[in-house]
Amino acid sequence: xxxxxxxxxxxxxxxxxxxxxYLQGEPVREARELVAELCRHxxxxxxxxxxxxxxxxxxxxxxxxxxxxxxxxxxxxxxxxRMVAEDMYVMAADGKVLSAPAAKPWPNKPPKCTDCAPLFMxxxxxxxxxxxIHSHGMETCIATMLNPGAKEFRMTHMEMIKGIKGHxxxxxxxxxxxxxxxxEYELTDSLSExxxxxxxxxxxxxRNHGIYVWGDSWINAKTQAECYHYLLDAxxxxxxxxxxxxTPEHGPINSAKRLRSIxxxxxxxxxxxxxxxxxxxxxxxxxxxxxxVPPDETGKEEVINSLVANVxxxxxxxxxxxxxxxLQGHIWRTGFEKKELQGVVFEDVPVALKNWHANxxxxxxxxxxxxxxxxxxxxxxxxxxxxxxxxxxxxxTTGNKRETKSYFEISQSLGVDSPSQILFITDVFQEAVAxxxxxxxVIISIRPGNxxxxxxxxxxxxxxxxxx
Length: 468
Hints:
Distance between the termini: 38 Å
Strand order of the largest sheet: 4-3-2-1-5-9-8-7-6
Active site: 159
Domain Class II aldolase/adducin N-terminal: 33-236
Cofactor: Zn(2+)
Binding site for Zn(2+): 134, 136, 209
Number of helices: 16
Order of helices and strands: HHHEEEEHEHEEHEEHHHHHHHEHEHEHEE
Helix content: 25-40%
Strand content: 5-15%
Pathway: Amino-acid biosynthesis; L-methionine biosynthesis via salvage pathway; L-methionine from S-methyl-5-thio-alpha-D-ribose 1-phosphate: step 2/6
Largest sheet: 9 strands, mixed
C-alpha cells in the first residue's frame, strides 16, 4: 500500500510538496481569501495598521490531519486593508514556501513573507495550532508598560476571561511577557521558551510591541484575540481608576502594589497583590505570624517591614503559595546571576535525562517552585545546563500538586490521547495518589530525607532514575 501514500500526498497537499492542482484548489483559495478578509477586519480594529501585525491559518481540509495541512500566511510590509487572496504565501506544514505572490509595480514593495513566520511556526509545531494572529493593538503595548519589570500579565474575575480556552470566570488568566527586540525573528527563542513554560497559555505578550494569539481554528484564535484585547483594555482603564484587576474583589490598588516598583521592579506582576490578599485571609483566620500591612501614610519602611514579616512567617510554615514561589524565583535569579547559588541534583539524574532525550522521550518538570526557579535550578547545576533535555515546566499556577485536577490540566496541556501515557515520578505520597487518580502511571522515588510511605501504598518505588 506504500505506493498509494504518494498519490494521496499529491492529491491532498500534505508533506513538503503539493500538486499545482491542489494549490489552485478550493480549500487553499478559501484560506487565502479568509486571511485577506481577516486582515481587513483587524485593520478596522486598529490591530494591523501601518503594515504591522500579521495573520496565518491552516488550510481547512478535513481529509488531511491538522498537523499536516498547508499553511497560508500574509506578506510583510503590505497595507493589510488592501490585500487580496493572491498576495498570500502558501507553505507546507514544515514551513517550506510552496507558492509566493507575484511582484507588483512600483510603489509596491517586492513580495516578502511575513517576518512573523518563524514565530508562527513555533505555535503550529509546539501547540498544534490551526491559526495564529499577531496584533499591534494599542492596548497590547500599554498593558505591558504598567509594570516594566513584570514577566507576566495577570487578571481574574472578569467575564471575558471565559472566552480564553481552559479558563472560567473565577480562574486567574496568566499571559507571559517577553522583551521586544529590534527584529521580529529575534523573538523566536523567547517566544518558544514562553510557549514551553506556560502550557496553559494561548497567547504571549511582547513588551512595547504587541501580542501573539493562537487557537485550534481561525474562529477560536479570533475569539480569543478579541477577548484578550478587551481584557487588556479593561486593565488599562482599571489602572487609570486605581482599581486592582489582579484580585477577585477588584478593590483599590493596595499599598503593596503601589510599592512594587520601589521594592523591586523585577518581581512578577501580581506577586505583591496576591501576597497581600493571602495576608488579609490569614488575619481573618487568625493564622500565627500574620500582621496587617499598614497604609501608605505610615511610611514606606513600615509597609516593607510588615511585608517581610509576613513572608518570613509563610516561609517558616512552608506554605505552598504561588506568590511565594514567584518571589523565590526572583531571589534565586539574583543568586545564580551572582554565582552565589548552584543547583544540586542526584548523580543519576543527568544521565537519565540525557538518555530519555536521546530516545525521543519528552520530559517536563512539575514543581511547587516557580517556573523561573525551575529553569534557574536546571540551568545552573553542578553537572552543567540540563535545560536542553527538558521540554517544559509546570508550577502551582497549574494547580496544587496534591489535587487530581492539576494533573488532569497538565494532561490536557500536553495533548496526550490518554493520561496513562504520562509517567509521573515523585517523592511525595499524596502527589502520587493525586496523579494516579488522574490516570497517570506513577513511580515513587525513594531519596534521602523522604517522608516515610504508608504500609501497602501500592506504588512501584525506585532509588535511582537508572531503574526506569
